[in-house]
Structure formats: structure tokens, C-alpha cells
Amino acid sequence: MPDSWLDLAPDTEFGLATLPYGVFSTDADPATRIGVAVGAHVLDLGAAARAVGAPFADAVAAPNLDTLLAAGRPVWDGVRAALTAWFTDPAFEDRIRPHLADRASVRLHLPFTVADYVDFYSSEHHAHNVGRIFRPEQEPLTPNWKHLPIGYHGRAGTVVVSGTDVVRPTGQRRPPGEQAPVFGPSTRLDIEAEVGFVVGTPSPMGERVPVDSFADHVFGVFLLNDWSSRDLQAWEYVPLGPFLGKSFATSVSPWVVPLAALEAARVEQPAQDPEPLPYLRGSEPWGLDLRLEVYLNGNRVSRPPFAGMYWTAAQQLAHMTVNGASLRTGDVYASGTVSGPDKEQRGCFLELTWGGREPLVLADGTERTFLEDGDEVVIRATAPGPDGATVHLGEVSGRILPAR
Ligand SMILES: O=C(O)/C=C/C(=O)CC(=O)CC(=O)O
Ligand SMILES: [Ca+2]
Ligand SMILES: [Mg+2]
Question: Where is the Fumarylacetoacetase N-terminal domain (predicted)?
Fold first, then answer.
């Protein structure tokens, strides 16, 4: 990467290879506005764009990312090129430096208005493991699994930004061996380490979005924790799928990494056999070499590799619209739990503890199956960037509060 007048340390989180977008406020100015993370700083993008008279200033002088998302790929590329120029060309320093805030001192908010929220199920390892745990008497993969990316509609209104506490959900569960359900706080509260995608450019009803149009529609990528109550889920999900077991909260990381930052992380997805139907075939690789890490109370418990996901986000987008369903700016869709083939690569505690039968032993000697009140989960990720640089996705965190 070119040098910056900001003197960024080579190993800084959010160097010039990343330049993610978020929404921040400060104690001095509680109005929310778009920020760009760069090293230990946050750039007030709207104020900076006005100071340099950038052509896209109206799209970014906004309380959140909604107008930038709607502006489309040419504007997204223009903003990113401008940011790189501002931070590398010393001629911009006088106009840009006054709009930098200390990243450690800002408050971060949900970066855009979430329109719809869909969650997929695209890790073969995860689907295989969950099938064996939930349905031991059946084939782990359902007959449709390798023909289409399975998904369900989640609850957009309960998508929350990283750092938001999660109240333990209450509801119906059926204890093992019983006929009737009981009511109370969930006893099998779990996470799902996932990657989220946000749609910028909408599409009209009745039209399909081809796999190869992915980058025209999708603005960027972030981390997502699909908190899941396994006891509520197991009792309610037949035959219509997850409902209250997953709708109480979904946490997202505050920094949206633009697709353009992930060019060097693009890889071929795993071979698909059988070959999918033509509408699910694309001409460009959209596997992504994102390396996730899951921490429970500071202990790293898993390292899920995203590169092995069976279905790509480009295929998921094509599938989501193949019936003519429209896309709206702010639509979020998530990859599904990211699990690799190895035990220490599993993206949820259901798998890590094999349905609660094999507790994890943490560094302090305590054991965990599912989450306890007070537990904090943090998911982080990085990806390879250009010229040996590292792209940072930052983190999504959440702490469990007791049921109410
Ligand atoms: O197989 C099942 O019955 C349930 C699967 C999940 O809970 C996973 C889900 O939300 C989709 C995913 O994250 O991969
Ligand atoms: Ca999920
Ligand atoms: Mg959820």
C-alpha cells in the first residue's frame, strides 16, 4: 500500500487496505454521521467531503449509510478512490486532518437501516453437523441442500450493533423425554459466527439478479452473530423453520468493509457436485478467504474459515431473487454459520460441544456447553489484502443478560 501522511503502523487495524464505513457520534457532537476507520482514527466523511468539495458530498453528508448504499457502484468506487488519495497525498492533509476523531472515544451505531434480513445455511460442515445432532435418524444433508442455498427470513427489526447486550430469550421448550413443553428462559443459548452482506443497489420486482451482477448490488461485508436458542428452536422449527429461536437478536459489526477491499481475498469456492442449475452459475470466483475467530470471555474457542463455504454470496443473491422478489437498499443477508472441517473450526457451541454432550474447558478451568448469563462473545475476522497487507473486518461482540 502507498504511504500515508497519517504514519499508520504496518500492523494497524484498519490500514489503507480496509477503509471501512460506519456511523459514529461523539460526546461533543451526538449527531450520528458517516465515519471511515483508519488506524486509530475515524474520519468524518461528510465533513471531509465538503471540505475538499468532493462530487459525492451529498451522498455522504448523512446520518447513516443509507444514501451512500443507494448511490451505486460508480459512487462507491469514487468515494474509495478519493479516500485513498486524501490519506496518501500530503496536499490533502490540511483539509482532512481537522475531520479526524480518536476512534477509541467515539460511539458506534447501527450503520444503515436494515430493510429485510435473510439468513442462509451455506457451510456444508455446519449443515452436516447440525443434521447429525438434531436429526440423528436422517441423512444429515436434506435432498435439496446441494441444489440450492437454503435460507429463511429473519427479523430485520432486531438486528443490533456490536456491543448491544442480549437478554436471554424466554419461551417454550420441550425437555428431553417429555411430551409437553415448559415455559421459561432458554437453557441452550448459542451463537452462530457468520458473515453478513448488505445490498446497496435495489432491483425491481419481477426481475432476477444474475450471479455475475453481485458486485453491482452488494456494497459490502461485515460480521454477524445469529444468536440462537437451541431449545426454543428444536421445539418450534418443524415444519416452517426458525422463528422465535433466532429472532430475539442478531448482532452485526459496526464497520462495513467495501467489496473492493476484498479483491485479494477472492478465491474459488469448493467444487460443486452436482453442478448447480444455470441461474446459480457465475463466471467469476466469489469465494472469500475471510478468517474468523470466536472468543468466549476472552478465550479463543474457534477459528472458522469462510473460504470453504459451499455457496457464495453471489449465488445466494441470485437465488434470493430468482422468483422475482425485489431487492431493497439495506437488505441484509447472512452466509449461515461458518464451520470448517475441524473441531476447532466450528462456528457455534451446538457443534463445538456436540449438542452439549462434550463441554469446552476454558483457560480458567471452567466448563461451558451453552452460554451463561454474563458471558461475552466476540467474533473477529481478517482477510488477505493487496501486497501482503491485512484487511480487517473488526469485531462483533455481545454480552448475555439474564432473562426478564
Ligand atoms: O438444521 C437445522 O435445523 C438448523 C440449522 C441452524 O440453526 C443454522 C441456521 O441458522 C443457518 C445457518 O446459520 O447456517
Ligand atoms: Ca444462522
Ligand atoms: Mg438471529
Answer: 18-111
